[in-house]
Amino acid sequence: MNANFGKPSFPHLRLFAWLNIVFQVVFPLAVSFTPAIAGDVREAHFLNKPADSEFSRTRVYTLSVGETTASVAKKFNISLSALSKLNQFRVFAHGFNNLQPGDELDVPSAPLSSSLQNNPQKNRESTKDDETTNKIAGLASQAGGFLKNTHQGQAAASMARGMATGTAGGVLQQWLSHFGTARVQLNADEKFSLKNSQLDLLVPWYERSDMLVFSQGSLHRTDDRAQGNLGLGTRWFNDDWMLGANTFLDHDFSHEHTRAGLGLEYWRDYMKLGANSYMRLSGWKDSPDLTDYQERPANGWDIRAQAWLPALPQLGGKLVFEQYYGDEVALFGKDNRQSDPHAITAGINYTPFPLLTLGAEQRQGGSGKNDTRFDVSLTFQPGVSWRQQLDPAAVGAMRSLAGSRYDLVDRNNNIILEYRKKEVIHLHALDLVTGHPGEHKSLGVSVTSKYGLDHIDWEASSLLAAGGLIEADNAGGYNAVLPPYHQEASAVNTYTLTGVAVDKKGNRSGESHTQLTVETPLLDKKNSTFTPADSILAADGESKEVLTLTVKDSQMKPVDTAVQDIKIITTRGTGAVKAARAAGMTEATVSAPVKKSTGVYEVTVTAGTTSESLTLTPEIFGETLTAAQLSISRDIPNSGRSKFYLIQPSIVANNTESSELHFNARDVHGEVISGIAGRLSFGVKGSDGQPPAKGEVTVSVVKEDGVTGNYTASLSGTKADTWTVVPLYNNMTLGVAGEKVTLTASRKPDVVKSDMKIEGEPFVADGKSQAIVTFTPVDEYGNAIKHLGSGAVSFSVGFLMEEPDQASRRALTANAALQQDLDVGPVEESPDGVYHATLSGTRTGIFAVRAWVDAVEVSGLVRHLTLTADTMTVSGDSKFQAEPPEIEVGG
Fold first, then answer.
1. 67, 98, 116, 886: least buried by Cβ within 10 Å?
2. Which among 800, 849, 837, 842 has a CA at the least distance from the CA of 821?
3. Region of poorest pLDDT, from 246-260, 393-407, 551-565, 815-829
4. Cα-based angle 810, 785, 718 (whole degrees, multiple of 5)
5. What is residue 404's three-state secondary structure?
6. How confident is the model at residue 284 (pLDDT cuts 50, 70, 90)?
């Protein structure tokens, strides 16, 4: 009830209220000088009364069975001739004296007093004589009050003030009564202030026999506050009941508060019912009555009932129930404020004659609040003779519906106020503090105070008992020293600290609550996992997926966390779920985490019968870990019923040859699932468990073979490796076993990317020395050509010639003598796809070495080989001679 509404701005409200009040007072005055309505002003309650009329108001009366004009005249205490004159403008089918049941005629609004029957002129003549009598009666009443008071001095002063205010009020009421119903109550205290005085005026503006439109204004001073009320209402009359509605604007001129009111009325003879509601239009303002408080109008309502005994109209009772809303509402005064107070008022009143009313009422509220009131009311009606005011028979007319036509609206014109304590001191501290044992954590304390801070009262018994502390620092702040972390299953590692700031005048702030949590060793988000990261389930209401949460710290050690500290935040796709709910399908359920071992927890997801996507995000002490995705579909293939196979498990990695992938999709019941090609794909991973790089492996778009549930795609690539292929549904694995496809390198080496080298040359052509030729074949995509088989790779050696033709090259190759002089050893392959052989020979020279694969030369890949002669050693046994030793010159 303490909602803080901003201060409404009504810049013209005060002007509007005063203009209306002046209008209500001045308008009747202006009207009084208008000849059109300058009639007899001695009648206090009616407008526009003809000067020669004997009756204030008339109404239509319908004759019942057995009634005649004579009995009707008697019923309303008028003569038959007066009743005939009242209906002189009506035309009756059977004549005035022969009216039948059901005929209508005009009658006075209320029965006339028997003392006035057929003698209104005498009543007018006696009015002047009664003025002196009225004054004497008033003086007698005041003198009685003086005599019963033991403090004659104060009583005399009070009597003098009463005489003055009574005379002034009577004059004012008599003047205002010319234009409507007026009620004036003037009270003067010792200082001659008008405290608790009130002026009410109801002015009819438009009326017919069955309707009345009126305004009602009021000025009063209640609870030392000058207030004004301005309302507009209408009343609809039937033969025996009245229904009315009204709206009011209430303004407090002293405290500048404004509220609106709506009301309903339902009246019958001897009974009045009413209901009113009160709604504030202004917000909180500083209260001039209570220090450090704010005030505003309280919202509320009331129900009112008044009734009188038809057999004894002088005796009546009233019942009022009123209810107001707010934390501190001053229904029983500003010193007795209550929360959402209500009160029931019950009272009785006795009116022996119109001049005097005696009343007593008891108002009972909640929490024992109550008050009792006794009042003696002398109601003087100017223009009404003293005899009629003392005539007990005239009381009945007051209780009739016609006689109360112009009565004031019964409502609470006093604006009931709601109060709240201004926040003269405010304590702020952090809502949540977390840390590890032994840490000093700031509580984030800040205090704002009108009168300065004296101290802060802390309630932290559980923290102190656990070994923690609250200590003040040199900067005026407060720190919490965290206690040890308790590992026991029943241990509580969360503590609530409550602080209240107290200023130097003893004002206390509202409570500030801080939750202090001692954490286990810090978990590491990178080392903690929630697996599997992606999974799918069939929407069959039975399939389950168990997700494992592993919590570790930065040292890869498991972190033991209480299960209740682990939250699994579930986010669902809303579109499909809403449609499923409308169709009566069920959603997937997520279990609470179950601890399996230290730092290891399991969460089980059970599929419902609707297709949906779930995102499960673990949260521990406010830290969120990597989420897991689940897809649940009614069309999801069942891993046990569906089949996956491929044709051509081994292909050349030339981006031309392809392997056919086949997937037969069936649900849990073995039924064919068609129409899901757009959601199917194939995942590929290499021998290292990593997906292929862009362009290394290509999988075509999945196509369905008719509506048989058979789906196909082709796989090709350029990267030689053994690849594992698995079917995917919405990019998540189905749990179907994968198949392997091997991509091998082409058997055609690429001359640019392949390599050949000779190590150990030059060497001596002695038939013993050797060189090693090494050949590394690579295809055009950079794949090593491995496992070509025995005899697939060979080397040839020939004489080095400048651009030899093919014929010469064949001749060199086939030269037997050359083949005998140069020896090429057997070709061997190492595990990494490198082929090598040994070279030796006995002929010197420079030779060309070429590589061959599958008897096809790797054109352009040529290396040079040099063999040198052996160096001779000359010994002592060597001889040099010429044969024949002589020859003939010229011969």
1. 886
2. 842
3. 815-829
4. 125
5. coil
6. very high
Contact (Cβ atoms closer than 8 angstroms) between residue 703 and residue 711: yes
pLDDT for 125-138, tens place per residue?
444 444 444 444 44
Neighbours of 54 (CB within 10 A): 18
By CB atoms closer than 10 A (0-12, 13-18, 19+), residue 877 is: exposed
The string of pLDDT tens digits covering residues 215-247 is 999 999 988 899 999 999 999 999 899 999 999
Please check whether residues 156 and 187 belong to one and the same domain: yes
Residue 236 Cα to chain centre, angstroms? 46
260 with 366, same domain: the answer is yes
Do residue 768 and residue 699 come from a single domain?
Answer: no
**Measuring CA to CA, which residue among 773, 767, 769 is closest to residue 843?**
767
Q: Which residues does 235 contact at the CB level (< 8 Å), separation at least 6?
A: 211, 212, 214, 242, 243, 244, 265, 405
d(CA 701, CA 665): 16
Q: What is the pLDDT of residues 162-208, one digit of tens each?
A: 544 444 545 454 555 445 677 776 655 555 455 667 888 999 999 88
Q: Which two tokens stand for residue 313?
A: 């109209």
Question: 703 is in which domain, residue-wise?
Answer: 643-744
Q: Residue 616: which of 531, 505, 712 has the closest Cα?
A: 531
CATH of residue 548: 2.60.40.10
Report the run of H or E that residue 356 belongs to, with start and end: strand 356-365
At 497, which CATH number? 2.60.40.60
Q: How far apart are CA 237 and CA 840, in angstroms?
A: 138
At residue 835, the 3 state secondary structure works out as strand
**What is the amino acid identity at position 146?**
F
Can you tell me the distance from the alpha carbon of 462 to that of 266, in angstroms, rounded to the nearest whole number?
63
Asked if 762 and 655 sit in the same domain, the reply is no
